[in-house]
Design brief:
The protein is α/β, with parallel strands linked by helices. Helices cover 40% and strands 18% of the residues. It is globular, with a radius of gyration of 20 Å.
Length: 328
């Protein structure tokens, strides 16, 4: 099989991680990977569009030649309409949404949603494609493994956050609400949050900056809890990698978080705030949730690892994608 992607995998972010994992499995079974513009004689059997692409003419040409198109969908761009990022960023995010919707409706032979939440976001008012599937992201569970057997919870216990960018009032208030535990935050930090913490520092919150993919597993090693800061997450790789590493997850019920975590952590009610308006969740119970997991750490850690094996293994994800790509 010749499988085409519009772009090479990005160096940062979840879509790039997904594409790298999938390409690795395809290559291991001797399939050929090509990208838009770098093949000359053979037409791809199938194209997998990860999110969106501006290479519409390339897709249309392949569609007309009989190549099947599979569209993997993430969540919509929506925060730009709430956060004051300027007219240009707001308009750009809406154009990207329209572009993605056009590929989904007019070009895709099959659509894969990262979670049931993502499916509901893209199809609240429109008819579903005939060929649609929900396939969760995955982690290499042989690479992300629990390593907390010999650690002392009293001295080695840490709260970890791994985000692409930490921004918005919900993330700020979640971090501010934690007083009794050390928190390590990995990822870029918005100017607003950086300014607030610079003006009023909180010694237990440590901003570590962006972290490479190869280092994430080391940051998750030990007796830790993963704290989700993202509002309405689509299907965050960092959550799945944490579960694979036996790291329980705490967060607030928005997006796909409850769907992914299940009993492998504690998902608190969001409260009266509206996550779609980036209103703050009710954070009063978050430290009680941390204490509950800490006091039953082995139980939650085991639950996390078992859930990852059952739902988020790379082999499971690859088999589902392969069946769709090859059946088309």
């Amino acid at each position: 099989m010749i499988v085409a992607f519009p772009h090479k995998p990005s160096l940062i972010g979840g879509p790039g991680s997904f594409q790298l994992l999938l390409e690795k499995k395809l290559l291991s079974e001797k399939h050929t990977i090509v990208y838009a513009g770098d093949y000359h004689t053979k037409t791809p059997d199938v194209v997998l569009v990860v999110g969106g692409t501006r290479k519409l003419l390339w897709l249309i040409k392949l569609k007309m030649s009989g190549t099947k198109i599979v569209h993997r969908l993430d969540g919509k761009n929506w925060q730009q309409s709430i956060i004051s990022d300027g007219l240009y960023i707001t308009c750009k995010s809406r154009i990207v949404n329209w572009l993605i919707a056009g590929i989904k409706v007019f070009l895709a032979d099959a659509v894969i949603y990262q979670s049931n939440f993502v499916l509901s976001v893209w199809n609240s008012k429109k008819k579903l494609n005939n060929n649609h599937y929900v396939i969760y992201n995955a982690a290499d569970i042989d690479e992300f493994r629990p390593v907390n057997k010999d650690l002392n919870l009293k001295t080695d216990f840490t709260i970890v956050c791994v985000e692409g960018t930490v921004n918005g009032i919900p993330a700020l208030n979640i971090l501010r609400s934690i007083k009794s535990f050390s928190v390590e935050v990995y990822g870029n930090v918005s100017k607003e949050i950086f300014r607030i913490f610079k003006q009023n520092p909180q010694s237990n919150i440590n901003f570590k900056g962006p972290v490479s993919r190869t280092c994430i597993k080391h940051k998750l090693a030990g007796s830790k809890i993963f704290l989700n800061l993202e509002t309405n997450p689509a299907c965050p790789n960092s959550v799945i990698e944490s579960l694979s590493a036996g790291v329980p997850v705490i967060g607030f019920d928005s997006g796909s978080l409850k769907e992914l975590v299940g009993d492998a952590g504690i998902i608190l009610p969001y409260g009266k705030g509206n996550p779609w308006r980036l209103e703050s969740p009710d954070t009063e119970e978050i430290e009680f949730a941390i204490i509950k997991i800490k006091n039953n750490y082995k139980y939650y850690s085991k639950k996390a690892r078992l859930r990852a094996k059952r739902l988020f293994s790379l082999d499971t994800m690859y088999l589902k994608y392969k069946n769709i790509l090859f059946d088309l």
